[in-house]
Write a structure and sequence with these properties.
about 180 residues; mainly beta; four-stranded antiparallel sheet; 15 strands
């Protein structure tokens, strides 16, 4: 039977000490997390989950840039994309979306996706959603929605490119950020 160990990791970034990882993992494995601030994601006209055929919001929503307010993306809506760099051979264990959604009628969605690199018959093939979440119902508090049932969880950077997509259905929703948790052998 493998022993479990608590693995805290201290990282020094620009002179500031920050706790990046703390978790229980199998002995010899390392836990990690990659975060993306919503305010840094690139708005885009339409995405896989915000278009005429597959609108997460019920209908396509035009994208607007929005503004950063103390790390919260405000007055934005529609689609945004960002690349995500995960370690080769890592296993994704959780996909987290931090958001403030105080709107009972509209939600915001987040997806972790991959696209196969190389040859295949059509451009629409080779796409996969590894994880997805949405804000569901209204709350005035900041909350985190989590998906731990990850499809194709093993990261293979030699075969796939990975990215995150958000779709925000109304401009009064406030995305904050996305985290992808993983373990490495």
């Amino acid at each position: 039977m493998r022993k479990l160990a608590l693995v805290p990791v201290l990282v020094v970034v620009s002179g500031a000490a920050v706790w990046v990882v703390a978790g229980t993992v199998a002995q010899g494995a390392t836990a990690g997390s990659v975060s993306i601030a919503a305010a840094t994601m690139q708005p885009i006209g339409a995405t896989t989950h915000n278009n005429v055929t597959t609108p997460a919001c019920g209908a396509p929503v035009a994208s607007t840039q929005g503004s950063d307010n103390f790390g919260v993306l405000i007055n934005s809506q529609g689609s945004a994309l960002a690349p995500i760099s995960l370690p080769q051979g890592a296993t994704v264990t959780a996909f987290r979306y931090t958001v403030r959604d105080s709107d009972a009628d509209f939600d915001t969605y987040a997806y972790l996706a991959s696209k196969r690199l190389g040859k295949y018959p059509t451009e629409l093939q080779g796409y996969s959603v590894l994880a997805s979440v949405h804000s569901k119902s209204a709350s005035s508090r900041v909350r985190q929605v989590v998906d731990t049932s990850i499809a194709n969880a093993l990261i293979d950077n030699t075969q796939f490119a990975y990215y995150v997509e958000t779709v925000t259905c109304a401009s009064n929703l406030e995305p904050i950020g996305i985290q992808v948790d993983y373990t490495t052998p």
